[in-house]
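Structure in, sequence out. Go:
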């Protein structure tokens, strides 16, 4: 049976543009509502520890006004855990975070603070929050994710996209994603993918059938400058729907 594939629209960079001038516009809530109207299946925001784009008040108002599910990306810290429990997003995706990085550069290190991670997952799930772990496309990480109770894995597509964009060989990277996706689905995880995806890379990655959700941000917001948010989302939806 063909799985219905979902598009999560990440609106962090609407906040990046707003914060660049310290103004109130463009408003991430407005972007979330336009994305919702344009066919997004969920909205993703990453509340970073340094609050460089999305701020706490964005999370509060978006959670209040949005009708489709809200996916909160966060690091595995006590502070973020408390925020998630308070605001109860529908989904949480736990990501690694380094202060100096420009974006989330790799998947989680699942050998670090594993008991703490397990506890966070358990407690979020008790509040009916779906929990995904952002991991490298490696079978060993898929196995650990399942063991520590995650509902889903989000496979990091950044390496594949970089190779593709620089016209390098992508076969082995693509196969790693495919194998991790097939294995994840087989052991009962929901499998997602994200990072660095564009129209071209999504056309390839969306052919990996076990992947049921794609979380895309930077390219959608960049395309919006030229064709608008609505059209950009619709183009991505069309690619996902095949
Ligand atoms: N998925 C996760 C877990 C991420 O951390 C990010 C970046 O915030 C994305 C997806 C979206 O990546 P991009 O903005 O490159 O599309």
């Amino acid at each position: 049976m063909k799985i219905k594939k979902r598009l999560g629209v990440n609106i962090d960079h609407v906040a990046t543009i707003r914060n660049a001038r310290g103004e109130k516009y463009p408003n991430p809530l407005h972007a979330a509502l336009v994305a919702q109207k344009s066919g997004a299946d969920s909205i993703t925001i990453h509340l970073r520890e340094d609050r460089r784009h999305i701020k706490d008040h964005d999370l509060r108002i978006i959670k209040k006004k949005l009708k489709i599910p809200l996916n909160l990306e966060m690091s595995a810290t006590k502070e973020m855990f408390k925020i998630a429990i308070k605001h109860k997003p529908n989904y949480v995706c736990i990501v690694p975070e380094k202060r100096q990085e420009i974006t989330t550069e790799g998947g989680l290190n699942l050998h670090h603070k594993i008991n703490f991670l397990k506890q966070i997952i358990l407690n979020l799930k008790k509040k009916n929050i779906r929990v995904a772990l952002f991991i490298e496309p490696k079978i060993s990480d898929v196995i650990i994710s399942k063991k520590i109770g995650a509902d889903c894995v989000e496979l990091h597509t950044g390496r594949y996209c970089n190779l593709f964009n620089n016209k390098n060989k992508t076969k082995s990277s693509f196969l790693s994603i495919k194998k991790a996706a097939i294995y994840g689905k087989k052991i009962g995880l929901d499998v997602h993918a994200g990072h660095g995806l564009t129209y071209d890379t999504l056309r390839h990655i969306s052919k990996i059938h076990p992947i049921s959700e794609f979380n895309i941000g930077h390219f959608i917001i960049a395309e919006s400058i030229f064709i608008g948010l609505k059209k950009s989302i619709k183009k991505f939806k069309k690619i996902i729907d095949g």
